[in-house]
Fold this protein.
Amino acid sequence: MIAFAIKRFVQALGVMLVVALISFMMFRFVGDPVNQLVGVDTSPAEREALREALGLNDPVLLQFGRFVVKAAQFDFGISYQFKQPVASLIASRLPATLELSLVSAFFALAVGVPMGVYTGLYRNTWLARGFLAISLVGVSLPTFLIGILLIFVVSVHLGWLPSFGRGQTVSLWGVWSTGLLTKSGLQSLILPAITLGLFQMTLIMRLVRGEMLEVLRTDYIKFARARGLSRRAINFGHALKNTLVPVITITGLQLGSIIAFAIITETVFQWPGMGLLFLQAVQNVDIPIMAAYLLLIAFLFVLINFIVDLLYVAVDPRIRLGGARG
Amino acid sequence: MTEPTLSVRNLRVEIPTRRGVLTAIDDLSFDIAPGEVLGMVGESGAGKSITGSAVIGLLEPPGRIAGGEIRLAGERIDNLAPDRMRRIRGRRIGMIFQDPLTSLNPLYRIGDQLVETILTHQRVTTGEARRKARQLLEEVGIPAAETRLSSYPHQFSGGMRQRVVIALALAADPELVIADEPTTALDVSVQAQIIALLKRLCAERGAAVMLITHDMGVIAETADRVCVLYAGRLAEIGPVRNVVKHPQHPYTIGLMAAIPSLSGDPDEMLAQIPGSMPRLGAIPPGCAFNPRCDYSFSRCRAERPEPYPAGTSHAACFLHAPEALRQAPSDILQAATAAGISLPNTVDGAS
């Protein structure tokens, strides 16, 4: 088990180094950073001094080493447009994105899994067919359109929920601003969370349904029935547990995508998260922010995959023995 | 005469499909006495497994029992509510499936699957259930039972897994055990052990066994009586010795002739029955076997035979009908006698 964890950790380090290299390259290829920093009337001597001060004349490998060491200490430099440390900019936006993503993922799981189980068990009922029809909408409509539709219907027409922003936030321990503790914060969260989670929810529902249908046909379910076990024990003990491995995989990967692609939802709802920050950075060629964002998303993916691997081991004993005890 | 453990009367199983209703089992009747082992043989698709599934109430939808009765120790079980039938499964009827590699849930420990089954059917504490689970594993011959309780199925070999499956099927001491090809998926060297184990454990418990297989060797060694199915219908049923040594139905004769023997000439071609078993949608009128039968005559193509007494067996063949001597052409009667079919000795002039 520990050997397995260490192996995965080393692999993760490798992935992070490659991503670091890619974000480092951005600085060199997306225009000259000095041009971004100085005005038009700066003299060549001043430019050269700045270049020297920033270490841009050092060998590339040394620069990369410096970039990695600094990144490991959460030092991503100064944002060109905000003239503030990137790390603190991201730190101030991170809670908004993470809260939105996690609530979306929770919504997707909490609704998607039961719907999947239901449609798998009672696939010929009207309700199950209704769920499937809804899921088709969720899969095929683009996120921004769902967001706009929700705003139009729920906020504009019905006036039930706010259409943009994060509502009132509360600062926790001075580092984490949460919208989960105020009424307006929670209200503001509902529409973006549904928009962001709807696709994942339908995906999970269809996945669980497919897996349930598959598992219910297996011999061990038939044998469980022949042993006279109760329906509940068969459906939720024996069948559901066997559907979980692929569900965990997909959910893990999707959680990464939720965080990474919150950009669109954040834009539609003017949600003050990292996605919005990143979009502004792209518009202003603010490379330090882009590089840091890239690294952060890669780190989250790697972290989530690591957790998913550990979860497999917890669910499926065959993986446990294959990997660790041999 | 004591009440049979299992009594199946005129069972009819239908499978509705888009192109019409298929009759998978047609007018099948048989009994299994307490402690008796009844072998069910027949080709693939003859309806052996479907009969087993129908008895335990686990027909795959859309298959359904369309007629007849199934009685367990006199009590009718084919029309029970699903929840009452569930209580009979495992408790009074145990079932063993063909493939031990897939019969056990891979994500649960052996001990947990046993304890779960015991707790479902008996009012005992978890501790007692666990003790009983260990005892069962010992009975089916699994060494170091205590530590093996916490093993997962993939840590066992195929033969060992089938032992666990047997332990699970017998956990609640059922009166009837349905073994659906219990050794087909196993190594030849392990097959005999598993059959012997199954037979011993059921004999100790006095459980009746319905042994579904196409392995005549297994039947000859294990079964008390044997029931031969053809295209969902009974062909012949009788004591195993008579059916194997003196088959009375032309299909059974062909089946027995097709078994290679160790004493036979190695260069000799194996006998085979011409043609193949009809698909369920295309069963010919009259006797289902008539197009392949060497001894068929006009009546075989027009009417369906019921099981007639044939020596100590019963065979669904008009050659055993009391009026056969009068109806069948003499050359067919001669050929049938030469093949070992004992014709009825009296001519019934009534019909």
